[in-house]
Amino acid sequence: MTIELISQEVEKLRDEMVNTLMELIKIPAISPDSGGEGEYDKAMKLLDIINDWPFDKIERYDAPDERAKNGIRPNIIAYYYGEKGEESPRLWILTHLDIVPPGDLSKWTVTKPFEPVVRDGKIYGRGSEDNTQSLVASLYAVRALMNLGIRPKRTIILAFVSDEETGSKYGLGWLMKEHPELFRKDDLVLVPDGGNEDGTFIEIAEKSILWMKISVKGKQVHASMPDKGLNAHRVALDYALRLDKLLHEKYNARDEVFDPPESTFEPTMGGNPSDAPNIAPGEHELVFDCRVLPQYKLDDILNDAKELAKQVEEEHKKGELPKIEIEVLQRMDAPAPTPKDSEIVKLLQEAIKKLRGKDAKVGGIGGGTFAAYFRKLGIPAVVWATLDELAHQPNEYAKIENIVEDAKVMAALALL
Description:
By secondary structure, the protein is an alpha/beta fold. Helix content is 32%, strand content 25%.
């Protein structure tokens, strides 16, 4: 009966949820790494919204970053105590304040990225689904409990953190390093930042992530006289093709827990300073995005890339050139998966069954989420939400129905 009552209360908050989400979309929260000012304005707006809500405690932790507005990257943690007060078991729900840049504005055909509109039950705007949808759902799951005067079985800890999109150096990673006292081994953790269209997929495992930037140095020359220089573009093309083939053939295991079930190695960026058709460039850069099954070691992949670089250098050698350097842009070694029979998995499956009448399956993904940070600490964490998976795309939207229904599940998790 309590879950039904809370579900009814969440329904009453539908319009308020829509308004809150739209207000937050209007505020760009783009990392300085992507040319933005950071999350300060959005964090202040969020604090304004919840300032008079009866949270038991709201804390703010500002990671210093001189590139960001006011020199900080804010992280907000709000507590709503359970029935046993501070002694209650704890449930974290973590969402992120930052968003990715809008990309090609000409591709936004429904509305401009930061001018949200509602159309056909969807709220359009950059960051609507990733991750403001779940941020708002978590807020109003707690608001429904507050309105009804219900203290749940578990203390709910809502965390709204910075810098998820560019590595969490100023967000969750910083919090765990600088404030380890915030986290407990017996905490339950939900990261609503991934899922599927009907909310029946629970992520319990992630692949390792490795972003490699390969820089090739040759000697620029007029394209009509290639022998007088060394075309870095040609060397880079040769290296990229051979690296792609090597990694796919050597690290070819499959694990059906994951989707896709194999490791992926994708060349994603590339370019050189040549600005004319008749210039053979002396420099070239390319990037590989590697998502690797946990059974493989990232050090082995890096060593293979470096060994191949030596081979390619030798084969194209002209004097002291070429030089091939490999830089790690991002690395996340996959921790052990959350056990399928862990408490958080069972509780989430139970909540989904009670509210939606569906059996949720567990599996792994190639993307990286906050859950990996908790798993490294030995704290079981799951990733779940109901999403159409429009993250990072033009015309990104959040379904209003998904916000409302996910809020019900989040509230139920704290009660079961």
